[in-house]
Amino acid sequence: MRAPFCVMKMRTISWNPKSPSLQVIDQRLLPAEFKIIELHQPEEVAAAIHNMTVRGAPAIGVTAAFGLALAGMLSPAKTVKHLWVDLEAAATLLRSARPTAINLSWGLDRVLQTAHEAADNGLSAIRQRLVDEAQRMADDDIAINRSMGKHGAALIANGDTLIHHCNTGALATVDYGTALGVIRTAHEQGKEIHVLVDETRPRLQGARLTAWELDQYNIDHDIITDNAAGYFLSQGNINSVFVGADRIAANGDIANKIGTYMLALAANDNRVPFYCVAPTSTIDLSLQSGKQIPIEERDPSEVLNLQCNGKPIAPSNSTARNPAFDITSHTLVTAIITEAGISRPPYLQSLAKAVEKA
Ligand code: MRU
């Protein structure tokens, strides 16, 4: 049964100034259950990022920023020096929640930086600045997604069939989405499109979350197993592939959800355009190539304990490996869409320009 909620009417993450607390959609329960939970402590925020209650690079960046705002509000510090100590400790904890998405560090650094600018105005000014800046980031995120949607929708024609990996929609951001935001914009422009949704093992963000969103937007779609994507690409009926990113190196190499690399290889082999959609906050110009991007390896139980007939799929003595992301070489990426426009190879120049423009 469809959940009694439309994601288009609500943000994935919202600040409640009364408690104070952060309200987030528990994405682990979807699509079976729609539940909002309140996070009151920075420790709870870090845990929610790590256990993927909140997930998706832009969403975790903003969530971490609000986590730091909570730390500022809750700190018993009576001096500015003391407050910095508490904020730095909270930032270290939040930063370690998930290593691959640069948005996490970017969000924390941005909030800390503006708080430092208010340092001369005293404790309550710093605390207010933390909240205001996190809120600004949340608002900006939606505007940026809508802008990427407009740029990227130009790459989609009426009647196109697309493949999409993981979840890059409203749930992965504050609202609207990155790659899925482009698909939404094309749909809102009246283009008829069909989306093949990679189920995205092992956490099934595609089958659980992307399909749930597409259903609410009335966008025509079919869920496919991840390993079926190559088959569909080889049949000649796919017009393009759209993915998001957790970090993009200066040369255009992309870290994204595990399985993205295989999808890019299959797209390349079949000469199907492969597009990556991400805000400039996902671009890490300090890294020359994807080889330097840290890849999160998650608990093997996520692979082993998936259920089949009500039982874990794997023998109890088996072990597993569970990298959450992989690196796709820039040579396989047709274009990268940011809020600054469409960047094409050579990415060393075009991405630097996009960051400067943004
Ligand atoms: O592990 P997740 O679900 O946080 O991974 C999400 C992705 O890989 C997304 O493609 C990426 O964060 C971009 S989301 C707009």
Descriptive overview:
It is built from eleven helices and 16 strands. With 358 residues, it is an alpha/beta fold. The chain has two domains: 13-145, translation initiation factor eif-2b, domain 1 (Four Helix Bundle (Hemerythrin (Met), subunit A), Up-down Bundle), CATH 1.20.120; 150-357, Rossmann fold (3-Layer(aba) Sandwich), CATH 3.40.50.10470. The strands form four sheets. The chain has a seven-stranded mixed sheet, with helices on both faces. Helix 1 (42-50) packs antiparallel against helix 2. The protein is globular. It starts with 12 loop residues before the first strand and ends with a helix. The model is unreliable at 1-5 (pLDDT under 50). It binds 5-S-methyl-1-O-phosphono-5-thio-D-ribulose. The site of 5-S-methyl-1-O-phosphono-5-thio-D-ribulose has 17 residues, from helix 2 and strand 9.
